[in-house]
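hey can u check if this looks right to u? its 307 residues, i copy pasted from the old doc so theres a chance i mangled smth
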Amino acid sequence: MLTPIRWGGSGSDVATFSNATRRLATACPSSAWTPRSWRCTPGCSAGSSRVCRRRSSPRTGAADARALLAPTGTVERVDDGFRLSGRWEWATGIMHAEWVMVAAMEAERGPRFCVVPRADVEVEDVWHVAGMAATGSNAIVARDVFVPAHRTLEIRRIHTGETPGEALHAGTNVGWPMAATLVLVAATPALGAAEGALDAFTERMREKVQAYSGQKHAEIPATHFRLGEGIATANAARLVWRDAIATLDRIGPLGAAAPSEERAAIRLAAAHVVRLANTVADGLARPPARARHSSRRRFSAICATSR
């Protein structure tokens, strides 16, 4: 969707891509998060044409795993390229990747993106988690790997709007503000997951029966309250998200010249969307106050009887 049209992609805008990601997340947050990581990095398309062609071409079908943007590795300049070493967390999609994109620090010029074949790095099996396990976000390690210069890009050039890709793909989202775009797209799976949780809760409460009273949860006012609170909170998150998408759509074409106040507002909105999405999920999973108090009384009674 985000690959430029000249390379066989759709050249979609961020709003279209984000809506697709959100809908995926209602069923499976891992399925939404992984392609988000594979294709949302502006640096992927904004690098040199040789890098992007190798990594985005539909002819090869190659996928890439993007580790975190933090430059936790180092690069040293050598003839015709760089020597790369370091360790990065978390490399989403690494189990299916053919290429890896990482950020590393160069002593003279600052942080730099480097693209290396998956075969050139080691994968540490550390992703043992309860949620989003299917992203396979293991850690990766590079040990003195040679990276040709054409497969690197100074991160500073992305922030200042000087990337080769922007000249190649004028009018696309290649040159949009990187941080604002990344955080907003990253917040989207959380919103979709909250909406999916609401759907699952609603369906379950239609048929679920209380163990002690035999009453259907659909007939209990406390259930209505939890559901209503969840719907209201999800609606609020959706409004914040849509407003931020509209702002990004308006200022995105300005690239590095986009107003810093609006870029900051987008980042704030993204954080708020995730916070509201967490509130939705926590509220649906937490038993009503009355049920919690009743459980405590039963537990106290059992303990007293045992004594």
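Residues 178-306 form a domain with the Butyryl-CoA Dehydrogenase, subunit A; domain 3 fold (CATH 1.20.140.10).
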